[in-house]
Amino acid sequence: MAHTRSRGRVVTALLGIILLHAGVAPGTDDQDPPFRWAAAHAEAGCCWALAVGIDDYESEDIHDLEFAVADVREVAGALVGTLGLPPDNVFVMTSDARAASIDRPTNVNVIKRLDFLAGSINPDDTFIFYFSGHGYQREGDRHFLGTVNADPTTVETLQMTTLPLELLREKMAKIRARQVVIIVDACRNDPEKGRGAGDNRLSDSMAKDLLVVANAAGAGLAGNAVLFACSSGERAYDWSERRHGAFSFYLLDGLSGKAAEPGGDITMASLGDHVQRNVVTWARQRGKQQTPDLHQQGAARIVLGRVAPGSGVVLSLTGEEGHLPVPGQAPQLTPPLVPPPVSVGAGQTWTNPEDGMEFVFVPAGPFTIGSDDREENEKPAHSVRLLGYRISKYEVTLGQFRQFVRSSGYQPAGAWEQSGTDDRLPVTGVTWGDAAAYCRWAGGRLPTEPEWEKAARGTDGREFVWGSAWPPPRGAGNFADSAARTSNPAVPAIGGYDDGFALTAPVGSFPGGASPYGCLDMAGNVWEWCSSTYNPYPYNADDEREDPSGIRVCVIRGGGFRNGEPRYLAAPTRGGLDRRQSSVSIGFRYVMGVE
User: Fold this and answer.
1) Cα 181–Cα 292–Cα 173 angle in degrees, nearest 5
2) Where are the domains of the chain?
3) How far is CA 446 from CA 180, 262, 407, 501, in A?
């Protein structure tokens, strides 16, 4: 390879990171999470990640892999759960996703995701691209990352069904990130059936091309880094007993805190050194050779996270739960290079400069979610403890969503333009993915189900936003009333209640219906998307209900202008809708982290 490297140690000179785990066969013919505020950031920026893992290829001519999907999921989980990346910023594409899902890693879907990220990532941000699957080499120096629909019949079919490195280089050039990290794990066994496994090696030319891809990313980068699962001429091995590749196992091990420098920083250099030392030893004990290889370029260090001194972080990589902190030894990682959030106290407000949204503060502490006296899906009432957070005082408006679409180029899946003609109305007709996309653009995320409910009812156990009395007091919100019956006589209206709106009302029209923390319209007007999957209680953030991947029924909360019965307008009421669908009765609000 055309770079300086001494065996057994990691050369640190490149500042963007590329992680690749792809098998190379040389010379042959062949819409959207508990979301916690961030860590692993570049200076004054956010961190984004795209993780692609493929076990089962569609072509019968391609060898399937065993642990690529598991590796990708757990590395993505470590980025969120250990380093603290916002889940909305971490995109996971795996071969077990449904055929129609945007998260299925076809070449077209991966390209679309890269294009989306190019429009979302800012010059101060960090971008991590992790690929685990097969790689191909043809005609000497043409290289391809094998997406799930790869057809290795000819060079032409590979060009049409994979991610050619020249195309990846073109896409990465549009990523304006300050730092780029690429991790490639792609040479576990030979991609094509009928060929010897000994032919599957990382070629020097493919390694060179991937370095070119990293260097192409954005203009004026502070640096980039590429981490290979093995060195040129080697292959990467699976560790069947651990249900991982050896490389990814020690990558996770390092991210848990074991790769931290004496001062507590986990840098790309310290992570690469940790992975290399352990994988080399592991391979040598088994009579094999595998040397993970890090290339770094740029003047600054890439700091991924920071371990609090004496935290003793350990990971358990066994059991059904997979990558989990060992009980009693939770990771203590803090974001090293992100500016501190605005400090906000109870009763204070803060305005997001991105979209002008006003926020109220919900302090940390326990509260009771659910109810033992109402619908079965609200049982049992149980205590949940939350960190402090900011939640938007109002539902996102049509005008704000229009600004987002125009400035970002995002193409919503829902019929949001049918929300009305007044920009002060809540935007409706948005899918869960549309709402999540807006939140990312604005620097926030959808609220988890407990975050929404605590903001609506506080900690005194009240049944409704306004208290525990029914019917609601005058001016409490926009519900099904006599005005609503003018547009739909079948609506079960609240007797004697008249809010003056047959359909949606401009946000904030009912200050008398404020929640204990000052949120408006948390009962009525429109239902609101939450990040959570519609799973039974008790609530458990670790049971995948906050996993943004896959097509699932997601929670909606709050009732809408068509609802006039207590069971729909009570604060504990839980609804659910397929995240791909939208409705004229559903909008959203969002949350942001706070110290």
Assistant:
1) 25
2) 17-316, 346-595
3) 27, 37, 20, 27
